[in-house]
Structures are given as C-alpha cells and as structure tokens.
Amino acid sequence: MNKILSDTLTELEKTQKDFWNVSRATGNFLNMLIKIRNAKNVLEIGTSNGYSGLWMLDALKTTKGHLTTIEYYDKRQSIARNNFDKCGFAGMYTPILGSACDIIEGFDSDKKFDFVLIDANKREYVKNFELLKPHLLPNAILCADNVNSHREKVQTYLDAVISDEGFQTEILDLPAGLAISYKL
C-alpha cells in the first residue's frame, strides 16, 4: 500500500462515524477477499466518502479489475471520487449516482459481478439481493456490512440469503458484523 493511500485511509478513519464507513479490519478483509477470489468486476452499494472503495480499489490493482460504485448522495460521491483519484485509482472505477435499487433494475442482463459489497440503506438489503442475483457470476462473493449492528433492519436480508439454496453464508464477527455469501 502506497503512502498516499495509507495516509488517506488514516484521515478518513477520523470521520468514520460521520460517513458510516466500514472498520479498518473489515476494509482489510474485503481487500483480501477480492485478491483471494481474483475478482475483476466489483460492485459497491454505498460509496459514501470512498473508504471501503479505497480498500477494494487497492485489491483491484492486483487483480486488474474494476469497481462500479453506487451512491445516493452527490456530495458523498464527489468526496469519494476525489479520494480515489488522489490515491491513483483514476480509470479503475465507475461512479453511479442514484438509488441502488433503481440502478440495479436498469442493468443490462449481461452486466455481471464476481464480488459485491452492500453497505447502504439497510432496509433495502433484501431488495438489493433479489435484484442482484441474476447479475452474480458463479462463485461470486456477496458481502453485507452492519448485519450485527443493524440486525433488526437487515434481518429480512439475512433470512433470504441464508435460506437461499444457491448461496452459502457465514456471518463474521468483524466490527458491525459482516455477512459473507458465496454463490454456488
């Protein structure tokens, strides 16, 4: 990890609560998962200020992949784009502004992902999951943050993904809780 990226991550950690960022441990874990999976097409639902995106882009530098990131709020996405470019990731990401559900519904049928992070509107996790299923490649990894910290809001998602025979799921006790699902 280069110094600019390392320094930027450290700076963003100071505003973690304001921007609802994943923890450093979760960011590092996502980075490792992308490398292990050798993911090329990553989707992030909930860009915020770019903290988790920076961790994923750092991994995508290794896998020679691309990040598509969706954010509802223009100001947050603008901050994220600045952070991504400052850290040397220009050209490695596609920012999309708007409602994640509307955007996913508008994806062409050939739009496929091998790694997804859901970390936005908690009550929409289950709808995100249903809309994403046709866009997940075999062996894709689907991660959902805040499954412990916001259990009540994401319970319908957990019920759906855990009961879906097309997925194998485990909940990790990382800060806020991270559900990892593997598409069989």
Structure write-up:
With 184 residues, the chain is an alpha/beta fold. It has a single domain, classed as 3-Layer(aba) Sandwich (Rossmann fold), CATH 3.40.50.150. It is built from 8 helices and 7 strands; from the N terminus they run αααβαβαβαβαβαββ. The protein has helices at 3-13, 16-19, 24-37, 51-63, 74-86, 100-105, 125-132, 151-163; strands spanning 41-45, 66-71, 93-97, 113-118, 136-145, 167-172, 178-183. The protein has a 7-stranded mixed β-sheet with strand order 3-2-1-4-5-7-6, sandwiched between helices. α7 links the parallel β4 (113-118) and β5. α7 (125-132) packs parallel to α8 (151-163). The longest helix is centred in the first third of the chain and has 14 residues, at 24-37. The chain is globular. 40% of the residues are buried.
Task: Give the topology.
Elements: H1 3-13, H2 16-19, H3 24-37, E1 41-45, H4 51-63, E2 66-71, H5 74-86, E3 93-97, H6 100-105, E4 113-118, H7 125-132, E5 136-145, H8 151-163, E6 167-172, E7 178-183
Parallel strand pairs: 1-2, 1-4, 2-3, 4-5
Antiparallel strand pairs: 5-7, 6-7
Summarize this structure briefly:
The chain is an alpha/beta fold and 184 residues long. The chain has 8 helices and 7 strands.
Q: Could you describe the largest sheet, including whether it forms a barrel? A: 7 strands, mixed
Number of helices, where a helix is a run of at least 4 consecutive DSSP H or I residues: 8
Low-confidence stretches: none
Number of domains: 1
Overall form: globular
How far apart lie the N and C ends?
Answer: 32 Å
Count of extended strands: 7
How large, in whole angstroms, is the Cα Rg? 15 Å
CATH fold group: Rossmann fold
What is the arithmetic mean of pLDDT? 95
CATH first level: Alpha Beta
Using the 3D structure, state the CATH architecture.
3-Layer(aba) Sandwich
Q: Helix fraction?
A: 40-55%
Q: What is the strand content?
A: 15-25%
Sequence of secondary-structure elements: HHHEHEHEHEHEHEE
Oligomer: single chain
For this structure, what is the CATH homologous superfamily?
Vaccinia Virus protein VP39
| Alpha-beta classification | alpha/beta
What strand line-up does the widest sheet have?
3-2-1-4-5-7-6
